[in-house]
Amino acid sequence: MKKNVLIKGILLLVVVSILAIGFTGCAPMPYPTTGTVYLVVSGPYLYDLYADDDQYFNNVYQGTHAITNVPTGNHFFEAVHYLYWEWGYDSVYQYIHSGANYVYLYP
Known about the structure:
Helix content: 10-25%
Number of strands: 7
Strand order of the largest sheet: 3-2-5-6
Distance between the termini: 87 Å
CATH topology of the domain at 34-105: Immunoglobulin-like
Number of helices: 1
CATH class of the domain at 34-105: Mainly Beta
Structural class: alpha+beta
CATH architecture of the domain at 34-105: Sandwich
Largest sheet: 4 strands, antiparallel
């Protein structure tokens, strides 16, 4: 009798453990919905940097400038000479995915 109770107890413990692992392992992993954009600007002057018509940087030199938490999807990026756009301007329309994204601007 004791052997039968012991086997049933172990069997019940194994079944409960398998069910617990099965139910907790079925949750889907959330996909990241934002990315980081690195604006790589090449030019000899000071520039204002825009993303989707919002200014993120003011009077910056050439180099790499990061914008974090940019939603995935298509975005419009601009580099404008800080005094007058005809002295230096470039724009790019680019799809942003999760993770690191490099946008190259040559005003």
